[in-house]
Structure formats: structure tokens, C-alpha cells
Specification:
The chain is α/β, with parallel strands linked by helices and 411 residues long. It contains 17 helices and 14 strands.
Length: 411
């Protein structure tokens, strides 16, 4: 394989702190491990800084470019590309890797300033997902009938963003999908029949197993009773993560199995989710967003992991749960069902179609109680989770995928 110079385009955002940030770290590790040179382009950093600054580490160079005074995003992107020409030479081995759907003007500027380069786009998020809470059936109906006046009136923003996403992706040399559902969506509804790759996320196995004594010490640190079962949710506190439905059914769980605690790790809409607590406040623990070391400690003392999302792409939280061998309760949401299979590496609580919140909540409560009641089932799902991590989400698989993609760019 001819070695590449890869420019990873990243904007400062909440997404960069959560899933996209985790992806970029693992992606850079993969690409650098293959011997490629990396330019990490960090946009919108250090607003008080009057200019750019550069950090060099072995074959990774990070270029920090703050927002300029102009609020014109198109002008900003053009200015960024003019600056990059001072540090990066155009060539057929140069690859720009985009992560965000608002990258159209940046892509145009890159093509103007680096005409020999290639472009790659990884789909981490699609606009319709949040608006429709991952309801793929409704999205497909909207796109099929997008010329209908009533549909345009009610879902104009969905159609407009679909057209914008499609326009961007049509100009990209290679598109990376992280999950099977999105891969199918690209081919069947975005009309992307060629140059679409399926490369699931991968994660380095970096945790160490804690001893029984260490686990007891961590429980004592958080004043959690040794006999108390810990139900762990990790992620952004948002309706699309299924957390509101989880809280709505948690009291039903406590009425049958009172000796358990729901631990919620992450930040977001605390006010919205607290309203769903009802009578369960004393059984819920909010930790806020944690560093990786503390989070991995919680994974190791948890009894059951909860993943009730309506929509994901290829969640690093889900991969972490599998890597730690936790028995998992997951939804059958868009892309979530690609990661978790009922009776194999998770107990799946169906959302229902058409959407019926109470039905989903009943399914969640039933699944939780089934795992709380069966140590045998927990052990089976724990074993399955570790096996799926090793076979599909270990970092080597991700690295092999990008190696083949970069080789394909030579063709």
C-alpha cells in the first residue's frame, strides 16, 4: 500500500467530546499504525487565541485553527484551506477525512485548493434521526412522498436536510457507514450504490480486571450496598437515548426488585429526565460525565448495562459494555439491532412499530426483571458480549477495514 497523508477534519462540538471524539482517537491510532502521516485539523479551538498553533508528535501533526471574527462559515472554511496550503502539499496521496454533515463548503474549498486529493466521509449522524426519534419507517415514507405538499409542509426540514446530505455525499470519493442499517439506507434511499464502505467502529482493549476487594472498595466509595444490584446507563441524557422511557418504567422494576440502583453516567437534559423519576429519586445516582478511568471502574462493578436508544450509528458505549462483558439490555432501535442480538449478547426490549411508549417501557421493565432474576442468563449474555466484541469490534477489524479502503483509493 502506498502511504497516505491523511487530514482529519474535526470541529469543536459536543459530538467531538462524545462519540466522534472516541472514533477519531481510534481511527488515528489505526491509520498511524499503518504507517500513514496524520494531520489532525482542529477547527474552532481556543477562541481567545489570535492565530493558529501547531503541535508535532512523531508522525501526527495537530493544527489548531480558531474561529475568525467573521460569522460567515463559508468564508471561514475558505480561509482555513488557504492556511492549510502553507503546511500541506497537494498530491494524489493526500486524503481529507470529514465527519460532519455541515462540511459542504469545506469540501468545496478543499477541492479548489487541493484538487489532487481524495475525500472520505464517515457517517456518525443523520439529521432525521433526532427529529423522528430514529423512526426509520416514518423517514422512508417521508422520502418516498417528498413531493407531496402535505408532507413538505409538515416535514420540510427533514426533506431539506436529506437533500443537503445527499448533495454532500455525492461529491465524496468514499463513504464509510458504521452499521448495516445505515449502509442499507445509503444504497436504497440516498441512491449511493458505489464507493460506500461498511467499517464498524473498533476499540482497543485497555481495561484491567479489578479484584473482588477492589470492586468492594469502589462500591464503598459511592456508598453502594454490596448486595445492591447496579443498573448502569452511560451516555448523553437525551430523549433519543431512551432514558425517559427507562425512568418511566423504573418504578415498576423497584416494586418487584427493590434492592437495585440505577446509575446514570453522562450529562445533558437533567431537568427533563428528573421529572420522570417520580418516586424513585433515592434509587437513582447521577454521576455527570466521568473520565475514562472512573467510567471503566463503574463498568466493572455494574451488574447490568442498559442501552435503550432509539438511534445510534455504532456506539462506543455499546462496544465498551461488550468489552467489559456486561449482560446488556438493549432496544431494537435503528442500528442498535445491528450491534445487539436477543439471547446472544443482549436481552432486547422491542420499541414497537408503530411507536407505543408504554409498550416499550413494559418491555424494558420485563427485560430488566428477567436478568435480575436469572444469574444463568446474565452469564450467557456476558460471554456472548465478549465474543461479539472480539469478533466484530476489536480494533484490528477497524484497522483492516481502513487499510483496504486506503488501498482502494490507489485504484
Amino acid at each position: 500500500m502506498i502511504m497516505k497523508e491523511v487530514c482529519v477534519i474535526n470541529y469543536v462540538s459536543n459530538a467531538a467530546v462524545y462519540g466522534i471524539g472516541s472514533y477519531i482517537k481510534e481511527y488515528i491510532f489505526c491509520i498511524a499504525n499503518l504507517g500513514n502521516r496524520i494531520n489532525m485539523i482542529e477547527l474552532g479551538t481556543d477562541r481567545k487565541n489570535s492565530g493558529i498553533y501547531i503541535k508535532e508528535e512523531e508522525n501526527i501533526r495537530t493544527i489548531h485553527i480558531p474561529y475568525f471574527h467573521s460569522k460567515d462559515f463559508v468564508k471561514y472554511n475558505k480561509g482555513v484551506c488557504r492556511l492549510l496550503r502553507l503546511y500541506i502539499e497537494d498530491s494524489e496521496e493526500l486524503v481529507f477525512h470529514f465527519q460532519y454533515s455541515n462540511s459542504y463548503s469545506m469540501l468545496e474549498s478543499v477541492k479548489n485548493h487541493f484538487p489532487l486529493s481524495k475525500s472520505v466521509f464517515t457517517i456518525h449522524y443523520l439529521h432525521w434521526s433526532a427529529r423522528l426519534q430514529g423512526n426509520i419507517t416514518l423517514f422512508e415514507r417521508i422520502i418516498r412522498n417528498r413531493k407531496n405538499e402535505k408532507i413538505k409542509m409538515k416535514y420540510g426540514d427533514i426533506i431539506e436536510n436529506y437533500n443537503r446530505e445527499k448533495e454532500l455525499l455525492e461529491k465524496i470519493d468514499r463513504i464509510v457507514c458504521l452499521s448495516d442499517d445505515t449502509f442499507s439506507l445509503m444504497q436504497n434511499h440516498y441512491d449511493m450504490k458505489e464507493n460506500v464502505w461498511l467499517i464498524p467502529n473498533g476499540l482497543r482493549k485497555i481495561h484491567r480486571n479489578l479484584s473482588v476487594k477492589q470492586k468492594i472498595n469502589i462500591r464503598n466509595k459511592y456508598y453502594i450496598n454490596p448486595e445492591e444490584k447496579i443498573l448502569l446507563f452511560v451516555g448523553r441524557i437525551d430523549h433519543i437515548k431512551g432514558l425517559y422511557n427507562l425512568f418511566s418504567c423504573f418504578e415498576d422494576v423497584l416494586q418487584v426488585y427493590p434492592n437495585c440502583r440505577l446509575v446514570v453516567t453522562g450529562d445533558g437534559d437533567f431537568n427533563g429526565v428528573i421529572k420522570k423519576c417520580k418516586n424513585t429519586y433515592s434509587k437513582v445516582m447521577f454521576t455527570g460525565r466521568l473520565n475514562k478511568k472512573t467510567l471503566y471502574q463503574l463498568y466493572q462493578i455494574a451488574d447490568i448495562a442498559l442501552f435503550p436508544s432509539f438511534y445510534e450509528e455504532c456506539s462506543y458505549v455499546g462496544i465498551e459494555m461488550m468489552m467489559h462483558g456486561l449482560p446488556i439490555i438493549a432496544s431494537d432501535g435503528f442500528n442498535v439491532k445491528n450491534m445487539f442480538h436477543d439471547g446472544v449478547n443482549a436481552k432486547v426490549a422491542k420499541i414497537g412499530n408503530p411507536r407505543k411508549p408504554k409498550e416499550f417501557e413494559n418491555n424494558l421493565a420485563t427485560a430488566i426483571l428477567e436478568l435480575l432474576d436469572s444469574e444463568t442468563l446474565c452469564k450467557e449474555l456476558s460471554k456472548g458480549a465478549r465474543q461479539i466484541y472480539e469478533s466484530r469490534y476489536a480494533l484490528k477489524n477497524m484497522q483492516d477495514g481502513y487499510k483496504k479502503l486506503l488501498e482502494d483509493l490507489d485504484g
